[in-house]
Amino acid sequence: MSETTMLRRAAPVGETMPTLRTIAELREALRVAAPPIGLVPTMGALHEGHLALLERARAECATVVMSLFVNPSQFGAGEDLAAYPREEERDARLAADAGVDVLFAPSSEEMYPEGFATRIHLGGLGDTLEGAARGPQHFDAVATVVVKLLNIVGPQIAYFGQKDAQQALVVKRVAADLDMPVSIEVCPTVRAADGLALSSRNAYLTAQERVRATALYRALRAGAEVVAGGSRDGAAARAAALAELALAGIEPDYLEVVDPATLVPVERVEVPVLIAVAARVGAARLIDNVVATPAGQEPR
Fold first, then answer.
1. Tens of pLDDT along 97-110?
2. Residue 288 region by backbone torsions, left for phi larger than 0, else alpha for psi between -120 and 50, else beta
3. Which residues of the chain have pLDDT under 70?
4. Predicted local distance difference test score (pLDDT) of residue 298
5. Using an 8 Å Cβ cutoff, are 70 and 81 in contact?
6. Nearest in space to 29 (alpha carbons), one of 149, 145, 152, 144
7. DSSP 8-state secondary structure symbol assigned to residue 200
8. Which of 29, 104, 156, 203 has its CA 20 to 30 A from that of 242?
9. CA 10 to CA 97: how far, in whole Å?
10. Are 218 and 195 in contact (CB under 8 A)?
């Protein structure tokens, strides 16, 4: 979908959207904001997936805040921090047209001032899949920055995408464990017409790699079809998905059939399961997932 089409999805609301850089400015701006306040945390490079989150927030909240912060601490050594797309002017325009009331775009120094020494560590959910592939510091960094954003903004609702299913679980767990007064809402993955999950990292793909990358969703669907067809064998679903990736010459970082709530691998499928994949296609490391529902059961 073109940027022009995206801009037509929603008209601006209220006054001109301010871009605020400091925590003090944001708190002052929100001091008299009408509740409920909705927060959509982003790292920018907005696409239709982000706009769907903003659209949901706009429909449900009196005040919508979008954060734009490329969190350096969640990028490991050799990852793509320097190359991560940064398009603040475009992102601000899209956010305003989606009805965002306030854009919070702090610097790294604002979020992590000199002497910052605190991190949040989440065991279990943060140790598997992406945590195993990228190291435990990844979800420590995610949890820490999200808690900071929730404390800074004080929203009643925060919106995350299902594409980052493990991240959403981590955030839900942390918010519950720390008794934070916020509802974490997880919105469906937004896909291109060919099934590829929308991601800021798709910008790294060449035209040929973009075609190859569609194998990730085909693989997930192949695994889900095994489950929907009546098989209760998690290994069979995983094998079907891996076979589809192999046809495209893609070796995944991981492809697992897991419990959607605990991320523990599932051997016998009795209830809906999450099939999750991460793989590198060219310069892009992509993640995706689907929920696979056994035959005769209602999808979650």
1. 999 999 999 999 99
2. beta
3. 1-15, 300
4. 73
5. yes
6. 152
7. G
8. 203
9. 6
10. yes
User: What distance lies between CA 240 and its chain's CA centroid?
Assistant: 26
DSSP 118-157: ------STTTSTHHHHH-THHHHHHHHHHHHHHHHH--SE
Q: Which CATH architecture has domain 3-187?
A: 3-Layer(aba) Sandwich (3.40)
Average pLDDT of the chain to the nearest whole number:
92
Q: Is residue 73 a contact partner of residue 135, using CB atoms and an 8 Å limit?
A: no
Residues of the chain with CATH 3.40.50.620: 3-187
- 267 neighbors 249 (Cβ within 8 angstroms): no
Q: Are 143 and 264 in contact (CB under 8 A)?
A: no
Q: CB-based burial of residue 279 (10 Å sphere; 0-12 exposed, 13-18 middle, 19+ buried)?
A: buried
- Active site annotation includes 50: yes
Would you call the peptide bond into 299 cis, given omega within 30 degrees of 0 as the criterion?
no
47, 50, 121, 138: which is the annotated catalytic residue? Answer: 50
Query: Residue 231, Cβ neighbours under 10 Å: how many?
Result: 17
* Spatial CA neighbour of 226 closest among 274, 293, 278: 293
Q: 200-292 in CATH: which number?
A: 3.30.1300.10
Paired residues of 41 in beta bridges: 67
Predicted TM-score of the model (pTM): 0.92
Tokens read off for 264: 């523990």
In the chain the first and final C-alpha atoms are separated, in Å, by 28
User: Nearest CA to 277 among 131, 126, 130?
Assistant: 130
Q: Is 23 exposed, middle or buried (0-12, 13-18, 19+ CB in 10 A)?
A: middle
Q: How many CA atoms lie within 13 A of 11 on its CB side?
A: 2
**Surface-to-core class of residue 68, CB atoms within 10 Å of its CB (0-12 exposed, 13-18 middle, 19+ buried):** buried
192 burial type by CB count under 10 A (0-12 exposed, 13-18 middle, 19+ buried): middle
